[in-house]
Write a structure and sequence with these properties.
alpha+beta, seven-stranded antiparallel β-sheet, six-stranded antiparallel β-sheet, 6 helices
Length: 435
């Protein structure tokens, strides 16, 4: 259909005399358009015969027609507008189709997530039920063993009681014998008292039995509740950040950025031993005295660096105040960055797992995978960081009266990210409170 319309438009804007696109077009009173030179030549020949006619419809003009040019130009202009509108219709139809595909993908992804979550929770329930069954079986088995031991001992004690009562009766009868000769005759026949099966060391312990099992299970329940509480917030945050990946403009004013403000607190378990955290774990400074932190696999050993406690997904914005004397790095990194030693694999911005903005009070330098990108412009002590994880956008800003873009990264993030800071000499870095 579109090809037919384009063909008709081409025929409409072609001169039927020279069969080429109209040049300096004019239109006769009968409504047909021609190149000015072509129709003038045709009409000049007709004037010699004192009669002129349209080459297409053969309408006769007497005298020579006035060629009604502005009208033709407006016709061509409207035709071009129509072509523009048709192109916009085609582009919009493509967008509608893409949105339909996005809707299908979104519904499919949500259905798959629900199915996977049901399967995962069902598996967790099965594991808990199996563990419950195992614990019950162990308790019953131990119960049976201990009850059997108790009953066995009880039977032995009851036998001992019976034997003692029999002995007591014999002694009673002997004591009641009035014949002294008979008494003395029967006395040697009495069997000596047997040793008691009821050991003097036997003690019944306080009645605790299986209370320790209940206490242990209560601790397990508490830990599971803590895990579920911690993960619930993360899962709900991720779910709430699922959206249609339509292009959204990056914030412009500081107020726009603050809509995505994220509170950043540093993780003491990642801090190098020569870093001191303060202000509720929002501020870090370099100290010369070894802080002798406990050993932890997440701790940076050789580099004076620290990571945030919270992972970053979705759209986030935070600000860092770099102060003191010396230099600092404002960084964003994957959690699996190397921690041991002081190689480039550990240093923010010198590997493919981290990005950093170096600030020394005089200039900015962006580093990624050891690639150095100097940033021109005035230097501010406060740096703003904007992250759109799903869109793969990481931007550094100079924060003052206005927001000045220093550097923007466009990539694809494959993992959740963490905010980081590195300081040297006696510099400091503080993650600012924005709310």
């Amino acid at each position: 259909m579109a090809q037919q319309e384009n063909q008709l438009d081409r025929e409409r804007f072609c001169c039927s005399i020279c069969l080429d696109l109209l040049k300096d077009p004019v239109t006769t009173v009968c409504g047909h358009s021609y190149c000015r030179s072509c129709i003038n030549t045709h009409l000049d020949k007709g004037e010699e015969r004192r009669s002129s006619s349209c080459p297409q419809c053969r309408q006769t003009f007497t005298p020579m027609p006035v060629l009604e040019k502005e009208w033709t130009e407006r016709q061509i202009e409207l035709g071009l507008r129509r072509q523009t509108i048709q192109q916009r219709v085609q582009d919009t139809e493509k967008d509608v189709k893409l949105l339909q595909q996005e809707e299908e993908a979104l519904n499919g992804s949500a259905d798959k997530a629900v199915e996977d979550s049901e399967e995962i929770f069902s598996e967790l329930i099965r594991l808990l039920e199996k563990r419950s069954s195992d614990v019950k079986q162990q308790i019953r088995s131990q119960q049976e063993t201990e009850v059997s031991r108790v009953r066995e001992l009880q039977e032995r004690l009851e036998q001992e009681i019976t034997e003692l009562k029999r002995k007591d009766q014999e002694l009673k009868q002997l004591l009641e014998t009035e014949d002294h000769n008979q008494f003395l005759h029967n006395y040697p026949s009495l069997s000596p008292p047997s040793g008691s099966t009821h050991s003097s060391n036997f003690r019944i312990r306080p009645l605790r039995n299986f209370e320790d099992v209940t206490a242990a299970l209560s601790k397990v329940r508490g830990r599971l509740q803590d895990i579920l509480s911690e993960t619930e917030k993360d899962i709900l945050q991720i779910v709430s950040q699922v959206d249609v990946l339509l292009p959204k403009p990056e914030p412009e004013t500081r107020a726009d950025f603050l809509r995505y403000s994220q509170e950043i607190k540093l993780d003491p378990n990642t801090a190098n031993n020569h870093l001191l955290l303060s202000e509720g774990n929002r501020k870090v400074r370099r100290v010369w005295k070894d802080q002798s932190y406990s050993d932890h696999p997440d701790r940076f050993i050789g580099c004076l660096q620290v990571l945030s406690r919270e992972s970053l997904t979705g759209r986030c914005y935070w600000e860092v105040e770099v102060g003191g004397r010396g230099a600092g790095r404002v960084a964003v990194t994957y959690n699996n960055i190397s921690r041991a030693g002081n190689s480039l694999e550990c240093l923010f911005g010198f590997n493919d797992k981290s990005w950093s903005l170096y600030c020394d009070g005089n200039n900015y330098i962006v580093h990624y995978n050891s690639i150095k990108t100097p940033v021109s412009g005035l230097v501010s002590s406060r740096v703003g960081v904007y992250l759109d994880h799903s869109a793969g956008v990481l931007s550094f800003y100079r924060v003052s009266d206005t927001m000045t873009l220093l550097h923007r990264v466009q990539t694809t993030f494959t993992q959740p990210l963490y905010a980081g800071a590195a300081v040297c000499y006696i510099s400091t870095a503080e993650f600012c409170k924005l709310k």
